[in-house]
Amino acid sequence: MERLIIDVYYYDIYETPVLFKETAFENSNSVLGSLFVYGILNNVVNWNFGPGTLDNLENLNYLELYSYDYDSGPFPPTVLFSLQELTFIGKTTLSTFSYVTMPNLRSLNIIYFYPGSTLPDNMLYNLPGLEKFRLSSSYVETIPDGFFTYVTSCKNFMLDSNKIQTIDLGSLNPNAKVDWGYNQIHQLLEKNFRPFVENILNTPNANGTIHLYGNPLECSCDIKWLVVDLKDGLEIFRGAQCADGRALADVDPVLLEIECPDF
Predict the structure, then answer these.
(1) Alpha-carbon distance 76 to 183, whole Å?
(2) What stretch of H or E contains 191?
(3) Which residues are within 8 A (CB) of 23 and not within 5 positions of it... i.e. 6 or more apart?
(4) Domain residues for 154?
(5) I need a surface site. Which of 18, 172, 191, 245 has the fewest CB within 10 A?
(6) Same domain flag for 154 and 130
(7) Exposed, middle or buried: residue 150 (CB in 10 Å: 0-12, 13-18, 19+)?
(8) CATH number at residue 152
(9) Are 89 and 157 within one domain?
(10) 177, 166, 189: which is closest to 237 by C-alpha?
């Protein structure tokens, strides 16, 4: 069966919200495979799909939305079941995107998330087939504790170019690749990193990695657990540099022992 791709462009200069009518895609319900809705990103969320617009798109696999008001226009069960890749770009309301069941979703992407936007604690709760999660070029500063608890099979996390300061990686798959470049990571707290690092080291043939390029690490007592106690785990960290220019792997363990005694 031939698959249909539709690109929709709109300009978010309207004073009233843009609403797609129920009949917008009625002639392509059975063949529409990909839908892209683009707009001018001016930090305004002013559109959504009206009731019934997406109800019959049973073969919609890819959906990319700019500045979408999900809270006012959640997806119907038909689309939640069929989607394999979902991308939100720009200022997007996602406070109700929690405990959403999407059994076939493989890739979830959130890009250019504007200030004031927050990630629901349980947005990854029921995505059993997720293979890639991307949160990039956004203003997100914190990731809720336990955020990744239920995506233990996912192996690709792109969390680059945000303002994240810390994150709990404990539940990740030992083969997960975590790109955390260009954030605001200053410390590698043992409680957040050690469980993941130990899981990699203790799992035969595991190849998980943590990419930390562009983060100003303090390289103080917070890394003693790694440099002194678990030095084999240093190879898991890629592109990690201290704020003074030293590579993480070059930090002197003897000096850390002296400066950071155990009590």
Answers:
(1) 35
(2) helix 190-202
(3) none
(4) 141-263
(5) 245
(6) no
(7) middle
(8) 3.80.10.10
(9) no
(10) 177
